[in-house]
Amino acid sequence: MTSQNSPHIVIIGCGFGGLEAAKAFAGKPVQVTLIDRCNHHLFQPLLYQVATAGLSGPSIAAPIRHIFRRQQNVTVLMGEVTAINISQRTVSVDGTADITYDHLVVAAGATHSYFGNDAWAAHAPGLKTLEDAFAIRRRVLLAFEHAERETDDALRREWLTFVVIGAGATGVELAGTLAEIARHTLSGEFRRFDSHAARVLLLEGGERVLPVFPETLSGKARLQLEKLGVEVRTGARVTGVDETGVTLAESAGASRIASRTVMWAAGVAASPLGKTLDASLDRAGRVMVQPDLSLPDHPEVFVIGDLAHIECDGKPVPGVSPAAKQMGYCAARNILARIEGRGVSVFHYKDYGSLATIGRKSAVALLGNIKLWGIPAWLVWLFAHIYFLIGFRNRIIVMIDWAWAYFSFQRYARIVIGAWKSERQS
To answer: Is the pLDDT of residue 263 over 50?
Structure first.
């Protein structure tokens, strides 16, 4: 049972870390206020499936209030935290209401990073939220519609050229799926061009795709991408993005790709809230935390997930969902330990492996010392993502959708919201 005198814990963000932290307080004599700018928890690893019309938004999201409907010590507030006052122990929501706390968990996540070129965002949207996914899906589907109406062959080629910048997991997944859409999903649906003529280019400034994977798996991933028809260009540093294409600097010199549809998957930056915590930040804006995930000189404040910089075994903990969930549980456990006057625990990251899907029956997986690729890796990826989806309904819906897509090559979520606009996309 909780009372008005119970310790008050504020959690900012209901991503994987914030969700896990809030769930860990179930049945404990504390009051929890969970604040998020959205009313839903999002399963981000499958966000690219929404962006490429493979899944609908509700299939990978669950209302936060529904998740915590039976956890009586959790109050959910929808709003954006605009400031944190460490000395006063308050957080400001939407610039008006101030909420006091006894303990604070900051799980605000990350946003897109254009490396100082924020003007590129208008022409190369990133993928972090459902709004991003819907915007990209609209751009991709309308590109084919523009190509059908275009009478100039050169302009039609621009509409049928899709560029993905950044060859991490998100970029690889987007590029592979776009190639499948052009070669299978849309095959035979247009009369003025062949959808097989669409070009999908994956650009990476480094020397290989999926750089966090071992070199052998990076090579396998590249081969699988190229088999799908994706043009992979490594060592290609983007120097400009505008409404008609991308400018590159490569070893052979500067070049330009004419394209009306560009997507950004090259970098992330920590939430700006990290700057309000009066703590040291790394180059990506992540907060340097103590081994127990708390702030130096402020043991009542914990930072977790993509916003936290912590090293385990001499290596930075990666910004992935399993790490965020483990941090959320550890932070909650340490808060309860402090309330009960016990010693806190040091965070230890347990790496369960890395997965990246490339397309139909194509993926790579690193599970400890086991390296998988092709169909075996794809099956591991498939079952892992279904298992970790929140809510039984979501699992059933996703399994049905994927089974249908597997046998029919179709993507049922190809709906464009909003009236057609005759002006060119920007």
So the answer is: yes
